[in-house]
Structure formats: structure tokens, C-alpha cells
Design goal:
By secondary structure, the chain is of the alpha+beta class. It is built from 13 helices and twelve strands.
Length: about 400
């Protein structure tokens, strides 16, 4: 919003106690502050300045710092900006509670974000990335069983902070176990929020084998030095696929031409397609032991790999991020409706590949069903949809 100067401020000689009054007034209700504005010009001025104290207490971060650098604190009416930030938090909370993930976490009594993080203090994308990370952890727990015998492990951590490491590509997640108080930190992909490793400062304490690989360390370092005018390279540039003539980064060139219009629906579908690509590459491209693209392709085909870890060639290549997309995950098209034209659930999309259709989560591109079997019952109950991905009812599943 446009921030105007405070009109009719008191004389400079009358401002000695105004800052103390501003702190006191910041704790009052809006109604009481409105009443205080009628007392005198000094009180009116203090009410205006109280917005600064509320912002500093509840919305501290890089976003607020940038605003304060642009406007003088003692002569600017910050109430429009404060109301904007308050409305922003309220809208985000309500949108999350209406979503299937919000209903699910509410059902199990889990609040995944710290209070301060809801304000997105440093970047407007912080809440979106955090919620995607929670979704991805839930997906692994539900679809893979990645947390061993304790299925509730994923729901015990509260995300304290998220920080962008490589613009548009890599984020750092900082969380705390709400039972043990233990804190931990990971680097994740922005598109899928899949973990790639622990940041260098945490690796000395790493006992779980999540050290950041040399290829990711080198890629992050390289992209962090990218010129501001060009920005970092897309991670999709690291993806290799088998049919370069008909596919661009694993996505049908013919379909990309059909959705080249920059309307909201086309943009959303292309975004889902890119997330699906990164969610479907061979696992070793993201984490685990480093492998060359050819070795991943050979291993996926059931052939012995040819990476000789002691060779000079591999020694030089190990600093290169390699991702291999199997041919059966090449994308022909993405749809937000069934073949009969019925709208899919707002969190579900259909990805058409050369062999079959997959049901995926729009927000991280991960699979929740396929053409032959539909969406399994557990995801139907979590999402509130039927086997064909059509919206049906609210989340009802309670984890065992």
C-alpha cells in the first residue's frame, strides 16, 4: 500500500514522551486506540507510531526492514502496511485450514508452523515452501513408510524457519521436535521439498547419513555466484532424458506448444509438469550415492553400472548434479479434469505419460494413484476425493 506522511504532528517540544506512549498504546485494543486519538494531538501521533511497535514485535524480518528503509519511522503512517500484513496472515491461515492438509493436521492435533513463520517475515514464499515440505513429509510417511515403525514421526516437528539458499531452487528448512526439543536443518528442493542433504554447518553433527553431497555443494556454490541479471540456472537443466527430439526436459514439445499461452491455467499445468519431472527422476539424482546419468540409466534398465569410483573421470564428474528421467515418466500432457470433463479435486492433477495416467499432488508432483488402480482408499480419505480424483468430502482418516 501507499504509505502517507502523518498529518498534523505535535510540536517537537511535545514529542518527548510520545515514544513511551506509543509502546503503551500498541498493547491496547483497536477500539481503545481509536478513543485515545481524540484526547490530543500528542496521543494521536503516538497511536500512529504504535504501528511500528506492533510491526517490530509481530512481523520482524527482512520484509519489514526493507519497508522501514524506504520510509522515515517518525513521520510515516504504517497502519496500512500493518493491516496488510495482518490480513495476509489471516488469509494464509484460513486457506490452510480449508485445504485437505490443514484439515488432516487439525484432525491429528498438529500445527506445523511456528507462530512467527506464518507472517513470512523474510520472503513471501516462506509459508508456501513450509506447507509443501509438510505435505512431502506426509506423502513419504503415507506412501513409502519412510519413518520406520513410528508413523507419527513426521508430525512431531514444528518448522521454525525457512531460508532461500538458491533463488527459486533450494531452501533450508529449520525445525524442532516438539517432544525432545531437538533442532535439525535440511536443504530441500523448492519444487518438491524433497531433502537433498544437511547444510554444511550441520554435517559435523550428522549421524543419519544425510550429508550434502559434493555435487550439490558445488552446484549451490556456483549458483550463489550467478550474476544478478541472469539469476541461477534451473535445476531442470540437470535432467537427462532419452528422447530429445520429441521432449524438452522430459515434457512433450507438442503439448508445450499447446499451453504456451500465459493464462493462469496453462501456467499452473506447466508448473505441475515441472514438479512431476523432479519428483520422478531416479532417486540417486537427488540423494544417496552419487551416480552418473549413464549408470542410473543402466541400473534402471537392470544392467550393471559402469561408474568406477576410483577412476579419474568419475573423480572430476562427481561435482556435477545428474538427474535421469526414465522414459515411462515422460510427460505427454497434464490435466485438471477427468476424461469426461469433470473437475478434479483442487489438490490433484492427472499426468499423462506414454504408458498410463498418474494421479499426482499438484503442489509437489508426487504420485497418489494410477490409471489402472485409481487413487487408493487412504489417499481418498485424506484428500476427500473418490477413486477418480473428484472432490467428495472432507478429510476423515486418522492415522493409526
Amino acid at each position: 500500500p501507499v504509505l502517507a506522511h502523518i498529518s498534523f504532528p505535535p510540536k517537537a517540544s511535545e514529542r518527548k514522551s510520545v515514544y513511551r506512549w506509543a509502546i503503551i498504546l500498541s498493547a491496547l485494543s483497536p477500539t481503545d486506540r481509536q478513543t485515545c486519538m481524540l484526547v490530543s494531538r500528542t496521543f494521536r501521533y503516538a497511536v500512529y507510531l504504535s504501528a511500528i511497535h506492533i510491526l517490530s514485535s509481530n512481523y520482524a524480518g527482512r520484509r519489514l526492514d526493507l519497508i522501514l528503509e524506504q520510509h522515515p519511522r517518525n513521520m510515516t503512517n504504517f497502519w496500512p502496511y500493518l493491516r496488510l500484513r495482518m490480513a495476509e496472515v489471516s488469509e494464509r491461515r484460513h486457506a490452510f485450514k480449508r485445504s485437505f492438509l490443514g484439515q488432516y493436521t487439525d484432525l491429528i492435533g498438529y500445527d506445523p508452523l511456528s507462530e512467527h513463520l506464518w507472517t513470512s517475515p523474510d520472503d513471501e514464499k516462506q509459508v508456501d515452501v513450509t506447507i509443501r515440505f509438510v505435505l512431502t513429509r506426509m506423502w513419504f510417511a503415507t506412501s513409502i513408510g519412510a519413518y520406520g515403525h513410528d508413523a507419527s514421526t513426521w508430525s512431531r516437528c514444528v518448522i521454525q524457519d525457512v531460508r532461500e539458499v538458491v533463488k527459486g531452487e533450494i531452501w533450508q528448512i529449520i525445525a524442532q521436535d516438539n517432544r525432545t526439543g531437538e533442532s535439525w536443518s535440511y536443504y530441500v528442493l523448492e519444487a518438491t521439498c524433497e531433502v537433498i542433504g544437511r547444510p554444511p554447518s550441520s554435517q559435523s553433527e550428522d549421524t543419519l547419513g544425510y550429508c550434502l553431497r559434493a555435487d550439490w555443494t558445488a552446484w549451490i556454490s556456483q549458483q550463489s555466484r550467478a550474476p544478478l541479471d541472469t539469476g541461477p540456472a534451473s535445476l531442470l537443466a540437470c535432467v537427462k532424458w532419452s528422447n530429445n527430439e520429441d521432449y524438452h526436459r522430459g515434457i512433450s514439445k507438442a503439448w508445450l506448444r499447446r499451453v504456451q499461452d500465459q493464462d493462469a491455467d496453462s501456467i499452473a499445468k506447466k508448473c505441475v509438469a515441472e514438479r512431476y519431472i523432479l519428483a520422478s527422476v531416479v532417486a540417486n539424482g537427488i540423494s544417496g550415492q552419487w551416480m552418473s546419468t549413464s549408470a542410473m540409466a543402466q541400473e534402471f534398465a537392470g544392467l550393471p553400472g559402469q561408474d568406477a569410483l576410483g577412476s579419474r573421470t568419475v573423480g572430476r564428474a562427481v561435482n556435477t548434479v545428474n538427474m535421469f528421467l526414465p522414459a515411462h515418466h515422460h510427460i505427454e500432457s497434464v490435466h485438471f479434469a477427468t476424461s469426461t470433463g469433470e473437475a478434479l479435486h483442487g489438490a490433484v492433477a492427472v499426468v499423462q505419460t506414454p504408458g498410463r495416467e498418474y494421479y499426482v499432488l499438484r503442489d509437489n508432483g508426487m504420485q497418489v494413484g494410477c490409471e489402472e488402480e485409481g487413487i487408493p482408499e487412504v489417499w481418498q480419505r485424506i484428500l476427500g476425493c473418490d477413486t477418480l480424483g473428484r472432490a467428495r468430502h472432507a478429510c476423515t482418516v486418522r492415522p493409526s
